[in-house]
Specification:
CATH architecture of the largest domain: 2-Layer Sandwich
Helix content: 40-55%
Radius of gyration: 25 Å
CATH superfamily of the largest domain: Endonuclease Chain A
Strand order of the largest sheet: 4-10-9-8-5-6-7-11
CATH class of the largest domain: Alpha Beta
Distance between the termini: 55 Å
Structural class: alpha+beta
Length: 284
């Protein structure tokens, strides 16, 4: 921890250089899309020539930009700084957007490397229960599910309406990947029947995986959306709020989260389960 404080002391002036100036930040963001002359910059960031030139001189002194024949461009270092600045902006925007979802909820199930990319969720919206419709988050999810043909779900929550849509999808020849805790798998077997599930697994339309730990999350991805729900810090799943996104980066983020747990999950083998059940019965 002491190292981090030392690091902060070394870079705090560099951070202030951007945070303390809208002009410098806007110039970097503008030049990220390509070289521009002064007229282009004035038109794009809506500031006077003198204000822009003052900011440009400061950026040139830091070697973040350079001038060539009246056009201004980012240096290699400037490109790195501009990209990182935009990444921080997107992260703060996403955190503000998702504040209601993350605050007082268990976020330990989201790996640190994915939290670093939280800006990917910027094109999302939060769905909340209302006094006149406490099931609104589930209804919105069902609407999105109805428009998809292939699904992935990571969950330790049994949702009857979602499961019904998954089963209907499998009946129609769609593909479904499920990562569930053992108790939820047992409920799925009870609902669909072991024979059907085994058939779908064998023909490749269903991948059913078991996760040993209690994953405090419910993640669903479809053809063109992701939906994310979390558990409250008191340990109960919060039905009253969820995140939905149709953004490509958000969908990619959701697939990465699914894949993270897929790598540590184990395939469900019904034959093995039957043998285990027989052994337990004989043991009695």
């Amino acid at each position: 921890m002491d190292y981090m404080f030392e690091l902060y002391e070394q870079v705090k002036d560099d951070m202030k250089f951007f945070i303390a100036s809208d002009v410098r930040a806007k110039i970097l963001i503008s030049l990220r899309s390509g070289s521009k002359n002064l007229a282009d910059l004035r038109k794009e960031i809506h500031l006077s020539s003198s204000t822009i030139l003052h900011g440009m001189n400061q950026l040139e002194q830091k070697s973040f930009i350079f001038r060539d024949s009246g056009n201004y461009s980012l240096s290699q270092t400037g490109e790195v700084v501009a990209n990182k600045l935009i990444d921080v902006m997107r992260s703060f925007y996403s955190l503000n957007l998702c504040e209601g979802l993350f605050l007082n909820h268990d976020i330990s199930c989201i790996p640190p490397e994915l939290f670093k990319d939280i800006g990917c969720l910027e094109k999302s919206f939060i769905v909340k229960s209302t006094s006149t419709n406490i099931m609104r988050p589930q209804e919105v999810l069902s609407e999105f599910l109805a428009k998809s043909k292939n699904f992935k779900q990571l969950t330790s929550v049994y949702n009857p309406s979602s499961v019904q849509i998954f089963l209907e999808t499998l009946e129609k020849g769609g593909k479904v990947q499920l990562i569930m805790t053992e108790g939820i798998i047992d409920k799925l077997v009870e609902t669909a029947g072991e024979e059907k599930l085994e058939k779908w697994i064998k023909d490749g339309s269903l991948q059913l995986m078991k996760i040993d730990e209690e994953v405090k999350i419910s993640l669903t991805t479809g053809d063109n959306f992701i939906a994310l729900g979390l558990f409250s810090t008191d340990g109960a799943y919060d039905l009253n709020i969820s995140l939905i996104s149709r953004g490509e980066e958000a969908i990619s983020w959701g697939n990465r989260l699914f894949d993270y747990y897929f790598q540590i999950a184990t395939p469900v083998m019904f034959e093995v389960r039957e043998i285990q059940d027989e052994v337990m019965v004989r043991g009695k």
